[in-house]
Every structure is written in structure tokens, then in C-alpha cells.
Specification:
By secondary structure, this protein is an alpha/beta fold. It is built from eight helices and eleven strands. Helix content is 33%, strand content 24%.
Amino acid sequence: MYEIGVVYRNIRRANSDIAARLCALGTATVHEAMGRTGLLKPYMRPIYPGAQASGTAVTVLLHPGDNWMLHVAAEQIQPGDIVVAAVTADSTDGYFGDLLATSFKARGACGLVIDAGVRDVRVLTEMAFPVWSKAISAKGTVKATLGSVNVPVVCAGALVTPGDVIVADDDGVVVVPAALAQKTLETAVAREAAESDKRAKLAAGVLGLDMYNMREPLQKAGLKYID
């Protein structure tokens, strides 16, 4: 059960430097570094190509067709935060547009992840304010029902706790629990270094068949070459 009608003002945020370094590594590498966990559902897409962001989560629980709590959440934003909004039931309404983005940006927000719709995409793109959403819709919302701010939420299938690290880019959105951020960074850096070595070998003409020692398993599986 979600808590309704509460705003937690003092949350423990993950280290901002770790969040920035994870962003540079990208969602795919971070997802793999966590054992392929933490990924939001793939319908969550950036509203413009090339969007990239990371930060600490300020969470918002919304109700269908009601964006009241996004305005409440704006007050809780600190520089380096990403707002993560979940909805109590499926909705694709346009909860967020350029006016809220202006407010969020003034507070220092790095972006928005919302399991619903957004609008004013052209202006948001011109503002370079990154948003990941499941829909784009001109349909507006009301302000009538209390939700909550900075409570644990499930956004697009992933549990997000206030203060967790959010990494988002063209490949999607991944959440890194604050307690695992340092370990995930170390694993991701090691993975990136290994991939750089593999990339150099592939560029030199080495086949993945040989680099990954696939030939014997393929033969045992019954693969046959016919000339």
C-alpha cells in the first residue's frame, strides 16, 4: 500500500559524483553491472534523440489525470535531482509541459521520468529539458487528488526509492539503489574497460566466434558448415 497525502522533505541522496560517472557509462553498461536488474520497461522513451541524464530520485505518486503532486514535488527538488513519477493506475494524459519544466529547471532538476504522458515536446526540446515517458499527449490534467512525494514507488515496473540513482539515455532508464551505487560504479567501470579491449580486437578483425570461444560449444550443439 502506498502512503497518500505525505511529503518527506529530508531524504538521503546517493553521491552526486557517482551518479554523474554512471551516466557517462550509459544505461546498458549500468544495467549489466547490476546483474541485469533495475531497468524500467522499454516503453519509457526520451522525448528527443540524444537525451542523457543522471541524478538522484525525487519520487512522486500521482493519480490518473491529476498532476497536482508534481507542483508539490517542485519544492523538494535540489540541484542534481531527477523527478520520478508513478501513477496509481494506467494513464497517458499530458501531466507535464514547458511551464512545469521551467519550474523544475529553476530548482536544478536534471530531468523527469514519468510513467504517463507529457506535452509541449517542441518547447521541452528547445529547453533541452530531458524527459522519459510512455506517451506524448496534448490532453491536460486536473489538480484535485492528493498523492505523495518522496515515498517508494514502482515506476514502469521498477522499484524506485527516494535518493536512488537514476541513469537515462537513448537506451532507456535504469535505477541504481543508493546502497549499491558505489559497487555498481566499480563493476561498470571494469566492464567498460573489458569492452574497450574487445572493441579493439573486433576492429582489428578478430571474430566474436574466436574471442568468445564459441566454436567448440557450437560444434557440440550440432552446428554444421556445408561448402
